[in-house]
Design goal:
Number of helices: 19
Distance between the termini: 90 Å
Structural class: alpha+beta
Oligomer: single chain
Radius of gyration: 36 Å
Strand content: 25-35%
Largest sheet: 7 strands, mixed
Number of strands: 28
Helix content: 25-40%
Low-confidence stretches: 1-22
């Protein structure tokens, strides 16, 4: 007569009933079960003792099941053990049934929060001679209803990519129709014809013929070799331009794109096919996936990409299925019409130009435009730094205010100042009427270099760094994509420090950094600009409201009677501004970086040209054009 003698759950013995001699010395079933659990996970059954079946058979079956999952293996846990003892007078051996829980963590292949889970059962017979629990080695130990030879496949379904939203909550980037243009090598019967077709296609669409030809040769004989992706509505080339060329094949698809190809391409970035580097860096990716490769699309790829759907099929049966989960949207502060205005102004210049506009009340970057004729891939506005010239005097002015000065304090403005053997002078043509002692706000308005160079022994480099940070130039606070705001050395001394105080020397800022300073002054607090909305707002208490008022008072005169006095009137609220011109190059190759920063109401802007005449004459009119146009756009948008 048979009777249950014990139940083991999770590997722990709950009860154990003795029914025959020798049980105390018997090998533990728990040990055999744990050995099998490890084998079911790894696929190595060499340590398992068999009553029937073979280790090689189970190993082959496990390898077949594991193959589509590459390096992913299941976690296998002993869930329950039931030992059955024979009657005392029976010649039958003890037996046991062990239940195993299998769990495949699909997050490791990119399916967030999903696990493929199932249970299997193993039968054991105790062999008294060898004191061993022997396994009945069936392939269903690995997977229920599995013979071990069925085709196992893992297929994923891409998720809809999240959208990049503008500052009004509207999508700027979402799936739009595209055409993938390339060559179908199966239509070209010789290497010569493939080479000729590749060169002809490259010439028509405007890509490097040698590189594309090499790519075509490297692909398999039946391959489709993509050359370019264009919008179906057309661009510099259309499907109709190439459809009659030898070997050309067109694949109609969708891709996340902005409304136009020239709308903030460096900021928004682009999406492309996964590369070998992507696959190495992220094991959840698979060949054929698309990922962000630049800008917001790259930095926030994990948010935008979503989670793919998956089907696990064994033979004709789908054993596990989960639907794809769409990616989340990414919220930006960009305002498309303002961005277009900024880009139009930048593109109209003959030299590298950058313009960044911020809403001081929120810190949102509403426009960031770069025009870089020599290096269009460089996002000059947020990634490049230059000597800021006299716009940096607003940073120095904050440090000087903190040293006890006020906007009306009398300050020296001599013709020259000598620090550690180096002579500093005002710009050529500086008005004699301002030489001598003048109010601090006048020194800022007319941009007296010697006033600031002469403060080298009152304001330290460390205090200058602190002032820059309190005006929003903190590189430790990001904007949502790679960016730099300023490089302000903490250890500059003597004449080098004197030069830094009026924006020369070794201090450098980006257009973003100077726009942050203008925004902070406008709002009377430390404004940390953002392109992509943050979950937590950084501390904005570095700059006080009173300091903001004083700095605005220093900037007011620039337009009224200072370096921008000849600028055409700008309608609307008071404009606070500061110009800057920084020497660059040397000798016959010298030239000037030109700057202007300003604010009007809830709008702050910085405009930079790598080469110009003066910040007042070159950049001032561009600031005016932007402020007037942006105010009209914002008024229309808010109405």
């Amino acid at each position: 007569m048979w009777r249950w003698a014990g139940v083991v759950a999770g590997g722990a013995v709950l009860t154990l009933l003795s029914s025959c001699g020798g049980e105390d010395e018997r090998a533990e079933i728990a040990e055999a079960a744990e050995t099998l659990a490890a084998a079911l996970s790894s696929g190595d059954f060499s340590e398992v003792h068999f009553r029937s079946g073979q280790a090689s058979t189970l190993a082959t079956a496990a390898e077949n099941l594991h193959e589509p999952f590459t390096e992913l293996t299941p976690e296998v846990r002993v869930a329950q053990t039931q030992v059955q003892e024979p009657a005392e007078d029976s010649v039958r051996p003890p037996t046991a049934e062990v239940t195993f829980d299998h769990s495949w963590d699909l997050e490791e292949i990119g399916v967030d929060g999903e696990k493929w889970e199932y249970s299997t059962h193993a039968d054991y017979v105790y062999d008294q001679d060898s004191d061993t629990w022997l396994l009945e080695g069936e392939t269903e130990l690995i997977l229920p209803d599995y013979a071990g030879h069925e085709t196992v496949s893992l297929s994923t379904t891409g998720a809809d990519r999240g959208r990049i939203m503008d500052g009004t909550g509207r999508a700027m980037v979402y799936n739009r129709s595209v055409v993938r243009i390339g060559l179908d090598k199966s239509q070209l019967d010789s290497e010569e014809s493939q080479t000729e077709a590749a060169q002809e296609l490259a010439d028509v669409i405007g890509i490097d013929a040698a590189s594309y030809t090499e790519k075509v040769r490297a692909y398999g004989e039946e391959a489709f070799v993509e050359a370019i992706v264009v919008r179906t509505e057309g661009g510099h080339v259309t499907a109709a331009d190439v459809e009659d060329l030898p070997g050309v094949h067109l694949v109609y698809d969708e891709m996340p794109l902005a409304e136009s190809s020239d709308f903030a391409p460096q900021l928004l970035g682009r999406v492309g096919d996964v590369t070998a580097e992507h696959l190495e860096a992220d094991p959840t990716l698979r060949v054929g996936d698309t990922v962000g490769v630049s800008g917001i699309q790259s930095v926030h790829d994990s948010t935008l990409r979503g989670s793919p759907g998956v089907n696990i099929t064994v033979g004709p049966s789908v054993r596990y299925s989960v639907d794809p989960q769409p990616g989340d949207d990414v919220q930006t502060g960009l305002l498309p019409r303002v961005q277009d205005l900024a880009q139009e102004i930048a593109d109209a210049q003959d030299v590298t130009t950058a313009l960044v506009a911020i809403r001081p009340s929120t810190g949102a970057i509403i426009a960031s435009a770069t025009h870089n004729p020599d290096a269009p891939q460089v996002n000059t506005a947020i990634e490049s730094t230059f000597a800021p010239g006299s716009t940096f005097k607003m940073v120095s002015a904050l440090a000087m205010l903190r040293d006890g000065m006020s906007p009306t304090s009398s300050v020296p403005c001599p013709n020259s100042v000598t620090v550690h053997g180096q002579q500093f002078r005002n710009v050529a043509g500086f008005q004699d009427q301002y030489v001598g002692h003048i109010p601090f706000n006048t020194a800022v308005a007319v941009s007296c270099n010697t006033t600031f160079a002469g403060a080298w022994n009152r304001v330290s480099s460390a205090e200058l760094v602190e002032a820059a940070r309190d005006l929003g130039m903190d590189n430790d606070v990001g904007i949502g994509v790679p960016a730099i705001k300023a490089r302000v050395p903490e250890d500059a001394d003597l004449n080098l420090h004197a030069a830094n105080l009026f924006g020369q020397g070794t201090v450098e800022t980006s257009t973003l950094g100077m726009a942050a300073a203008a925004a902070s002054i406008a709002d009377g607090r430390t404004v940390h600009p953002w392109l992509v909305e943050r979950e937590d707002e950084p501390d904005g208490n570095g700059l006080s409201e009173r300091e903001g008022e004083q700095l605005r008072e220093l900037m007011r005169g620039t337009v009224q009677y200072g370096t921008l006095r000849d600028l055409d009137p700008i309608p609307g609220p008071t404009v606070y501004a500061k110009t800057g011109t920084a020497e660059a190059g040397s000798g016959d190759d010298s030239y000037s970086h030109t700057w202007v920063i300003g604010s009007q109401g809830d709008l702050a802007v910085a405009v930079f040209l790598e080469e110009g005449e003066w910040g007042s004459s070159t950049n001032g009119p561009l600031m005016r054009e932007f402020l007037v146009g942006a105010r009209e756009i914002l008024a229309d948008q808010d109405s």
